[in-house]
Design brief:
The protein is an all-beta fold and about 600 residues long. The chain has three domains: about 240 residues, Exo-inulinase, domain 1 (Jelly Rolls, Sandwich), CATH 2.60.120; about 140 residues, Sandwich (Jelly Rolls), CATH 2.60.120; about 210 residues. The protein contains two helices and 47 strands. The strands form ten sheets. Strands 1, 5, 6, 8, 13, 16, 17 and 19 form an eight-stranded antiparallel β-sheet that branches. It has an eight-stranded antiparallel β-sheet with strand order 37-38-39-40-47-44-43-42. It starts with a strand and ends with a strand.
Length: about 600
């Protein structure tokens, strides 16, 4: 795979005979940019409350478009010299409030970028939508067709960095130039949420560069509908044939499995040749050990990644080198291993020994490598071993509360929260609260919960968020002082007093800490943000309330703070006295209050 990171490197021309050429992001030499509304910056800020208000600081690494509403035309677009066919592209983007843009694959197929924050029922023209096609000859109501709305609105607030991943398969043509297959968006993810899967488009979007599909075309960034910024644009260009298998042979033994036995010393009860990789040569579904050997054809030098599915004990080797060691797995457990190899023919070996009758045989092997996508090397029927568990999903069509364990991992803290409550709302924004610490640990946008781990079979008591998650931490919210946050015996002084549900079935949490009684209410505001109100009773002095903690907290203006490089906003009354306190390698946003504190979380 050819990989280019645009925030550090901007790609220019590419031909089949010339290696990729890159340009430092201090300039835009790899793009056509006649109007000059695009520039390279060091950082960007869009005020979430003011239309089309985006500012930037000079530097490198961020691609910025500053454009007034009302001035339209293709001359404001940024078009790459680089042309592509199949590719994956991922990027971070920031929308100004009310702004509109799009990324066109091959200059023709538009994925919409829009300030769609909080919209309940997104359409093809909302953020992440596959923009529609257009036919002027049709009646007015039918001129636009074939647009695809995102499955769910996963958009963040304007002024926050968002992330998109697009996996695109270009239209294919025969030797006479006739199209044989349509272009397909294999997957599109917005802020971690899968919003499209296997969406075929019969031709270019409205506003395309060419009227018909083409085998190669440029990347095109729309710049005539408002201001926005990009960073971390990363491309994987797929322009080589995939790896393949040939000359496959199997040897199988039908004795009871012996974990200590050498696979090479086992008696061969059956053997033969195969056209495709499969387990289906076997005469019985259990009590067997087999070895499959064959030729693995690597189309180029580089790193190859293998994804193996196999029931019970299994391993994978290339040229005798272990890629995946012998390990017991379930039929739906994926194993992933990588190896550096040269272009040419290599020997592959797959081993499987099964002795548990409760699972069916399964064999699936996928590979991805230099300039080709993840490809199945097995027969399709070979993966039909065990049916995966049907998910047990919980929606929150009305305000919904569910107690469960919640596994929490923000990259620094990994723990199971055993007294968690998950609160779902009809606005499709939800949160988890730790009743043992009186703290908000995560919020998310999208579906409510996946309760499969809790309710399938015996279960383990845990559930999972079904959306784009913003993680906090599981530290206590209240402390006696601002500076010495770890002072005091918090664990012993904390006493949970449960929660009360209001008429809308939403909880207010109650607990005691440091001799004070705390009530903690988290409510939806404007259908797209959370408002948290903490009230204190019985205290002898003001208490410190931790609003946020992160490696970076940036004051944007009085009462507005961006957290974790603009991952979410904290909005608070500008008259409230808050402090940014250094705590080790992190910053804390802290306020002192005697009676009541309210702030909003915009995400």
């Amino acid at each position: 795979m050819k990989k280019t990171i645009f925030s550090l490197l901007l790609i220019c021309g590419l031909s089949p005979l010339i290696a990729q050429q890159t340009i430092l992001s201090a300039n835009l030499n790899g793009f056509k940019n006649p109007e000059g509304n695009w520039s390279i910056a060091g950082s960007a800020f869009a005020n979430p409350f003011i239309n089309n208000d985006l500012k930037f600081i000079k530097g490198s690494g961020v691609l910025v478009n500053i454009h007034e509403h009302g001035k339209s035309g293709s001359s404001f677009e940024l078009v790459s010299d680089f042309k592509h066919g199949d590719l994956d592209i991922s990027f971070d983007f920031m929308m100004a409030k009310g702004s509109n843009s799009g990324v066109y694959l091959q200059g023709n197929y538009e994925i919409q970028l829009l300030d769609s924050w909080g919209k309940k029922n997104p359409i093809y023209g909302d953020c992440g939508g596959i923009y529609h096609r257009w036919n002027d000859k049709m009646p007015e109501a039918q001129k636009g067709y074939e647009g695809a709305a995102p499955r769910i609105n996963a958009s963040k607030a304007p002024g926050l960095w968002q992330h998109m991943d697009i996996s695109f398969q270009a239209a294919k043509f025969d030797k006479n130039g006739q199209k044989t297959t349509n272009a397909i968006f294999l997957t599109i993810k917005l802020n971690g949420m899968l919003i499209h899967e296997n969406v075929e488009v019969s031709g270019p979007s409205r506003g395309s560069m060419t009227a018909k599909d083409v085998p190669l075309g440029p990347l095109r960034f729309q710049g005539d509908h408002g201001s926005l910024a990009f960073k971390n644009i990363e491309i994987l260009n797929f322009d080589k044939p995939s790896a393949s298998l040939e000359n496959l042979k199997y040897n199988v033994n039908y004795n009871a499995y012996d974990a200590s036995a050498d696979p090479y010393s086992l008696k061969t009860d059956d053997s033969g040749n195969m056209k495709e990789l499969t387990w289906e040569f076997m005469k019985q579904p259990n009590e067997y050990s087999y070895l499959i050997n064959g030729d693995f054809n690597a189309p180029a030098d580089g790193n190859y990644t293998f994804n193996l599915f196999s029931s019970s004990n299994n391993y994978l080797k290339i040229d005798g080198q272990t890629v995946l060691p012998n390990k017991y797995t379930g039929p739906n457990d994926e194993r992933i291993g990588s190896i550096e190899i040269k272009k040419g023919v290599h020997q592959i070996e797959v081993y499987n020994a099964k002795y548990d009758g409760w699972m069916n045989p399964t064999l699936g092997l996928f590979v991805s490598g230099p300039s080709f996508r993840k490809t199945a090397l097995h027969a399709a029927s070979s993966m039909f071993g065990n049916k995966p568990t049907d998910p047990i999903l919980i929606d929150a069509k009305t305000n919904t509360n569910l107690r469960s364990f919640m596994d929490f991992n923000n990259g620094e803290i990994k723990t199971r929260i055993v007294h968690a409550i998950n609160v779902g709302t009809a606005d499709n924004i939800h949160y988890t609260y730790d009743l043992d610490r009186g703290t908000l640990i995560q919020i998310w946008r999208g579906g409510f919960l996946d309760a499969t781990p809790m309710w399938d079979s015996r279960g383990d008591g845990s559930s999972r968020p079904r959306g784009s998650v913003t993680l906090f931490d599981n530290k206590f919210t209240v402390n006696p002082t601002i500076q010495n946050w770890t002072s005091g015996n918090t664990e012993e002084s904390f006493k949970p007093n449960g929660y009360k549900l209001n008429a809308d079935n939403l909880p207010t949490f109650h607990y005691e800490i440091y001799g004070s009684k705390i009530s903690d209410n988290i409510a939806v505001v404007d259908g797209n943000a959370f408002r948290r109100t903490i009230k204190i009773e019985g205290n002898k002095s003001a208490l410190a309330i931790r609003l946020s903690e992160a490696k970076q907290i940036e004051k944007l203006q009085d009462g507005l703070y961006a957290v974790n490089n603009k991952d979410y906003f904290i909005k608070i009354n500008p008259e409230t006295k808050v402090q940014l306190v250094q705590q080790g390698d992190k910053q804390m946003l802290v306020a002192m209050t005697e009676k009541e504190l309210t702030y909003d979380i915009l995400f």
